[in-house]
Amino acid sequence: MTMNLEDYFDFFSNDDIRLKSHRIGIEDIVKYYLQGYSAKEIISELPTLNLEKIYVTLAHYHQNKQNLDNYLLRLEGKREQHYQEWLVKPSPLIERLREAKANKISKKLL
Question: What is the distance, to the nearest Å, from the Cα of residue 21 to the centroid of all Cα atoms in its chain?
Fold first, then answer.
């Protein structure tokens, strides 16, 4: 029996593969698995999933380990890049919140 991946995953791009009808990416399941979580423990962390989806994701990971390890590395690199960019130039909301906090502290010191 062959597994039809499109029945389980939405392939939005090369760097965005999610479980069908979920916002959960396959990287979320694989990361828990690589940290030593069992399928049942992963469900306790991601309770909207079921064992079938977890096992299909893990089977897909094992069948395509090199490609999915590269996928995980690319995602981690992109997240780190976005974080570094955010540190240099945070969103306008964060800047306003920091400014408000600084003003509140300076008023207390007066």
Answer: 16
Cβ neighbours of 19 (radius 10 Å): 21
pLDDT, tens digit (0-9, with 9 covering 90-100), for 12-49: 988 899 999 899 999 999 999 999 999 999 999 999 99
Beta bridge partners of 17: 11
pTM: 0.73
**From CA 33, how far away is CA 82, in angstroms rounded?**
25
- State the CATH number of the domain containing residue 27: 1.10.10.10
Q: Which amino acid is at 43?
A: I
Please list, residue by residue across 71-109, b when 16 or more beta carbons sit within 10 angstroms of its beta carbon and e when fewer do: bbeebeeeeeeeeeeeeeeeeeeeeeeeeeeeeeeeeee
Number of domains within the chain = 1
Q: What is the C-alpha to C-alpha distance for residues 14 and 27, in angstroms, rounded to an integer?
A: 13
Query: Would you say 76 and 68 are in contact if contact means Cβ atoms under 8 Å apart?
Result: no
Domain extent at residue 9: 5-109
